[in-house]
Design goal:
It contains 16 helices and 17 strands. By secondary structure, it is α+β, with helices and mostly antiparallel strands. The chain has a six-stranded antiparallel beta sheet, with no helix packed on it. A hairpin with a 3-residue loop joins strand 16 and strand 17 (297-301). Helix 12 (395-409) crosses helix 14 (432-447). The chain starts with a helix and ends with a helix.
Length: 488
């Protein structure tokens, strides 16, 4: 009887001591590299620089960074990376999923972010690996060198259409619907409401918003970089042209005005396939947006037109973008007012008969129209491009426009991955006196864009114009004519 009373009070009867209870978790890792979103425009200007390769069984988008905080000027990551031996916590989705294994080999990709298909669940071969449990984003302890390789296993969610239609937004983090204070919020809300008018489900709102941006603006790699509220206001109201940087960030902010929790993702399209390996270059960079739904987790949306900025016919389009385009056709328009095939329409036209214009006449008219359009393009496009860059909204954007214009005039558009210093040192003595000050101003803008003045922008364009005159003086008329006809 004594044992029954006293026994439970003795130390030996307590739970055994576990030293892990007194051990502190490693401190969270913070990302200290330049935001990949700030690199998008620069990468697009040098599109042929190989960044990494991926051996995988299917073409996917390779996610690099997840940005979920916005202060009105920049998107940043609120992630708290935790060291891991290779396991990555799974996301909210617990339904059907495809398992895809990848082997990634670095070439020239800067920073510590590690690309992988969403969502990674296991990583091998990375020393100092850290993961953000919330987003599944990956970083290495140090910037990987060329030739560094690692393996990733990812699970690609496969929700049904019923799952999508029943999905409701997940409101577990107020920061995901926060909009910075300023007059632009009303504009973004108005445009978002117009774009989604009549949508009877959150998923329809999202796809209508995607459709709105894809059909009301154009993809242009020469558009000024940046994603400040003022810059995006200019994009939505005035230029209607941009890179995926502007399309994705505008979508995310417009979604937030509708109460849809959103974030921006920077990654890459699959790349160019060769022997089961996808070669991913700087021109394959792409930003997209994601919206968080209960049970579904994060759902990607691709508001950039032209299959999110595909470079050329050699590029592989990811299954995610193809699926998104298909769902946009079904959900953005209710699934009933868009024909599933153009064949019935063509047959109906053939049954009507009638003597129409001669095919040769139509071909001649079309050819003449094309020649006229080409002539107008040759005459107007370079002038329009310079004008747009010179009249960009902010002084910083005008400075960067002057630098891009100068690189175009020097024949450096998309040729090589050159720093500003590389560009200066490669030029002859009659050009460098004007080019070096412009390079200095351009570098200053990249590090302190808010400190740039109108005077600095004016000086940048004066230097750019001087370089242009010097280049023209050195270039023969036949060479200038050839460049003009080739739209260089």
């Amino acid at each position: 009887a004594v044992a029954l009373v006293v026994g439970p009070l003795l130390p030996v009867a307590a739970d055994p001591y576990d030293p892990r209870e007194d051990a502190d978790l490693p401190p969270p890792t913070r990302v200290d590299s330049v935001s990949p979103l700030d690199r998008v425009s620069a990468w697009l200007q040098i599109p042929d620089r190989e960044l990494f390769t991926v051996r995988a069984g299917k073409p996917l988008n390779w996610r690099l960074a997840v940005l979920d905080r916005y202060d009105g000027v920049r998107w940043s990551s609120g992630a708290r990376f935790q060291p891991t031996g290779g396991r990555v916590p799974e996301g909210e989705w617990t339904g059907p999923a495809d398992v895809v294994r990848q082997k990634v080999t670095f070439d020239g990709l800067p920073g510590t972010w590690l690309p992988a298909a969403e969502r990674p669940v296991e990583v091998g071969g990375v020393r100092g690996l850290a993961v953000d449990p919330g987003s599944g984003a990956l970083i290495a302890g140090t910037a990987p060198a060329k030739g560094f390789a690692y393996e990733v296993t990812s699970k690609i969610a496969r929700p049904s259409k019923d799952d999508l239609l029943a999905a409701v937004p997940a409101h577990d983090d107020p920061a995901l619907t926060a909009f910075p204070p300023g007059p632009q919020e009303e504009l973004f809300r108005k445009l978002a409401q117009e774009a989604t008018k009549g949508a009877d489900a959150p998923i329809r709102q999202a796809y209508r918003l995607q459709s709105y941006l894809r059909t009301n603006a154009s993809y242009d790699v020469t558009a000024p970089p940046g994603h400040s509220l003022k810059g995006l206001e200019f994009f939505l109201q005035t230029t209607h042209r941009g890179t995926s940087e502007q399309f994705a960030t505008a979508f995310a902010l417009m979604a937030r005005t509708l109460g849809l929790p959103s974030r921006v993702v920077v990654g890459f399209r699959p790349g160019q396939a060769s022997g089961g390996i996808y070669h991913v270059k700087s021109g394959h960079v792409m930003a997209w947006a994601e919206i968080k739904f209960e049970k579904l987790g994060w759902r990607p949306f691709y508001p950039t037109p032209g299959r999110s900025g595909a470079k050329d016919d050699h590029d592989v389009v990811s299954s995610a973008i193809e699926e998104s385009e298909q769902l946009e056709g079904e959900f953005a328009h209710g699934g009933s007012d868009r024909p599933t095939s153009s064949q019935p329409k063509a047959e109906a036209q053939g049954e009507q008969g009638g003597a129409g214009p001669s095919p040769w006449l139509l071909a001649g008219v079309a050819g003449g129209a094309l020649l006229a359009a080409y002539a107008v393009t040759v005459a107007v496009l370079p002038w329009w491009r310079r004008r747009g860059r010179r009249r960009a909204q902010s002084p910083g954007e005008r400075v960067l426009g002057a630098w891009r214009q100068t690189c175009d005039d020097l024949g450096l558009r998309g040729d090589r991955a050159l720093t500003a210093e590389d560009v200066v040192t490669a030029q002859p003595p009659d050009i460098t006196p004007h080019l070096r000050p412009l390079a200095d101003i351009s570098n200053f803008v990249r590090y302190a864009p808010d400190a740039v003045t109108d005077d600095a922008a004016t000086q940048a364009w004066e230097r750019s114009d001087a370089v242009r005159r010097a280049v023209r003086a050195r270039t023969s008329f036949p060479a200038r004519l050839r460049d003009r006809l080739l739209l260089r």
